[in-house]
Amino acid sequence: MTASLVSEPLDIASIRADFPILQKILPEGQPLVYLDNAATAQKPRAVIDKLVEVFEGYNANANRAAHTLAAMIDLELDAARSKVAALLNARSTDEVIFTPGTTAGLNMLAWGWARKFLKPGDELVISLMEHHANFVPWQQAALATGATLKFFPLTPDGRLDLDRLSETITPQTRLVALTAMSNVLGTINPIAAIAARVREVGAVFVVDGAQSVPHGPVDVQNPDIDFLVFSAHKIYGPTGVGVLYGKESRLRELEPSIFGGNMIRSVRVDGSEWADLPARFEAGTPAIAEAIALGTAIDYVQAIGLDRIAAHERMLTERAYAGLSEIDGLRILGPAVAHRGAILAFTVEGVHPRDLGELLDQQRGIAIRVGHHCAMPLHESLGLASSARASFAVYNTRDEADALVNGVARAVKSLRRKRS
Ligand code: 7TS
User: Fold this and answer.
1) Which phi and psi (to 5°) does residue 238 adopt?
2) Domains parsed from the chain with CATH numbers
3) Tens of pLDDT along 353-378?
4) What's the chain's average pLDDT?
């Protein structure tokens, strides 16, 4: 594959043609404007076709090859694992564990690492901008072990406050778990600076890549991180499957937390021994076709180029940010565009986010998310119960960014008129 040129604009029309759902006309007669990509991304034809190919062509259980179909499925699953390893720049496919998703991966770490190693006096660092999936498992691990849950201070505009890095991550810190990109504030966190401090104190660094991996290049070796989790469904792949990347030395410390078939070397009546990596952390039948189709989704984004995807989404974000900022009483949560990815959450004075979401959907076919976006502590710290959120993907257009801005402006006017 030739190196992609960031400066070369993407052919969005041909990208859109790859996504059957984007051709859909909604019941009210409008085309779909899908701006809820942070919740889940739509699937290109190639991913949908891959699922059909597996189920029609060579469906079998995995890791049991004794017949032709089983051998084919194992080959395909191995190929998908290699594609994930290449995407992340992992040192080996043994460092790639298929999981049911980001939430499952983080729970595996909270059970298999935090609950195994933490004791009273130890510190665990997260932040208030974490999704509940990167919040509750650590909170519960801290409660169970007596370790202290510490919060990385945020700046008033919603960034991690690096001025307080050394007092936050200290020699007492055993584990730091942070999102690479906030699913509400859109903040892109300075993973390299944090990784360097985590190394200094000898702690473990867990990166929640659910929102970052789909939107730009990632390299687990640079900066050097221990664990990274993400979900296939946010990177144009199927639901039900995700990835736990772990540095081999860390995976060897991690205790399995789900036991059963495939993850054992031997089982005796008085005890068991675990299989080697990665099988040790893949008990039971995995989401086989879905994991294989994740490989296809990775091919899809690699062919476009993650750097070009990032550049296109940045253009959309800048445009929508500027337009929304003009609307009277509208407040965008989080930092300036320079520090954020393709997520814009906002509130409007005197307008309930739910009413706004309903109007955009019904009158304009614009799908956004409203609510607390599984980040209740963050909303609470901002004095909010909920917000409205638009989030972009590679197939979104300039016109859709404008439709969002115009749609919000008109909806706000009409909701305010109704109230007065
Ligand atoms: N971490 C982050 C940063 C997320 O945004 C999400 C999902 C998760 C973890 C959990 O991923 P899952 O695939 O295991 O569910 N975020 C969202 C969202 O913002 N709207 O819907 C799901």
Assistant:
1) -75, 165
2) 12-42+305-419 (3.90.1150.10), 49-302 (3.40.640.10)
3) 999 999 999 999 999 999 999 999 99
4) 96
